[in-house]
Specification:
With 346 residues, this protein is an alpha/beta fold. Strands 3-2-1-4-5-6-7 form a 7-stranded parallel β-sheet, with helices on both faces. The protein has a 6-stranded parallel β-sheet with strand order 10-9-8-11-12-13, sandwiched between helices. The longest helix is centred in the C-terminal third of the chain and has 18 residues. The protein is globular, with a radius of gyration of 20 Å. It starts with a strand and ends with a helix.
Length: 346
């Protein structure tokens, strides 16, 4: 019996892995439940629709004593064989209410792209049953930062179930994520300004929100891009827009955005991305998409122009990306490896 604990079911890497992995685990015969410390979201609804039991604890204020009490009651009631914890926030909360169960914890999503790892978190890493790193780039990041656990293993990423193929709009570009300087939304707008003069039908769709959304709106207004760029917030269905888009952009300055690249590949869409480690690991330059030097919006615009001028190439790269994703990370193999980790920890 596996209980997944995560702080928020949002649009970040860990939440997407939970969304894609847990239905597959359940389909393979494992008893799976998900506990989200935060409120219900679109992702929570998607999981529930897929038949996964999701419990949300509605944590919205920093100090809310009812959340740890409800988490403790849930752990005591369900008595899981393994607690799969996603992120250090959820691990801290679990340590607060169920410290005696840390040896049954599998931890994922705990190595931040930047910033310090506090001594308390490093101590907790030494108490858990297994640190599960997803992909070689995360393993290298953990090694550079000297992160140690009782047992560490590297597993492949989970992929979303690809929807039926849809004919894309070659002049539609999608950027999605949390609007923050690290995720490169400003760079996307700048790169778009380079190419939009050449294609009147070109559109950029921005899905997401964040503290820097107002600054991005000002940039769009200052460059007079209102007719070409649409900021859709978090209410839009990024997956549906991705299936319609001709190109997906990932101009990330930090090592983030892996889940967007994986979803784009699963849907057969070419990605143009900055060459941060996790994206270099996924995208074969010139074969399944393009990677350009970090921060080089001009090169991003040039590579995008190649795809716009040669729509057949964009389709070919997208097909190659989908084929590579299905052959490199087959879901049956991924589920089998997670099952082995759970059995070992249990």
């Amino acid at each position: 019996r596996i209980l997944h604990v995560i702080d928020a079911l949002d649009d970040q890497d860990s939440a997407r892995q939970v969304q894609w992995l847990t239905p597959a685990l359940q389909g393979a015969g494992l008893a799976v439940e998900v506990c989200c410390l935060g409120p219900a979201t679109r992702t929570a609804t998607t999981l529930s629709d897929a038949g996964v039991n999701v419990r949300t604890l509605d944590w919205t204020r920093w100090f809310d004593p009812t959340v740890p009490l409800r988490l403790r009651a849930l752990v005591n009631d369900t008595r899981p064989d393994v607690l799969h914890v996603w992120g250090r926030t959820a691990l801290r909360m679990l340590a607060l209410v169920a410290r005696d169960r840390l040896q049954r914890v599998v931890l994922s999503g705990a190595i931040p792209a930047k910033g310090l790892i506090p001594t308390w978190d490093r101590w907790l890493l030494g108490k858990i049953g297994c640190l599960a790193l997803i992909g070689d780039s995360e393993a290298r990041r953990a090694a550079r930062r000297g992160v140690m656990a009782n047992t560490t293993t590297v597993l492949p990423p989970a992929l979303p179930r690809a929807a039926a193929p849809m004919t894309p709009d070659p002049f539609s570009i999608l950027w999605t994520g949390r609007i923050h300087p690290d995720t490169g939304c400003h760079a996307a707008v700048g790169a778009f300004d380079f190419v939009r003069h050449l294609y009147d039908a070109l559109r950029l769709h921005i899905v997401g929100d964040g503290m820097h959304a107002t600054a991005v709106r000002r940039l769009i207004s200052g460059l007079e891009l209102e007719r070409h760029v649409r900021m859709l917030g978090t209410g839009a269905d990024a997956s549906a827009l991705m299936r319609q888009a001709g190109i997906v952009w990932l101009p990330s300055f930090a090592d983030v955005g892996r889940h967007v690249a994986l979803e784009a590949m699963a849907h057969g869409r070419p990605v143009v991305a900055f060459a941060v480690p996790s994206l270099r690991e996924l995208i074969a330059d010139g074969e399944t998409g393009f990677v350009v030097p970090v921060g080089d919006a001009v090169q991003m615009a040039r590579r995008t122009r190649v795809l716009l001028d040669e729509p057949a190439l964009a389709v070919e790269l997208g097909r190659a990306a989908r084929a590579q994703a299905e052959s490199r990370w087959p879901m049956a193999h991924t589920v089998s490896q997670w099952r082995e980790v759970y059995q070992r920890v249990a």
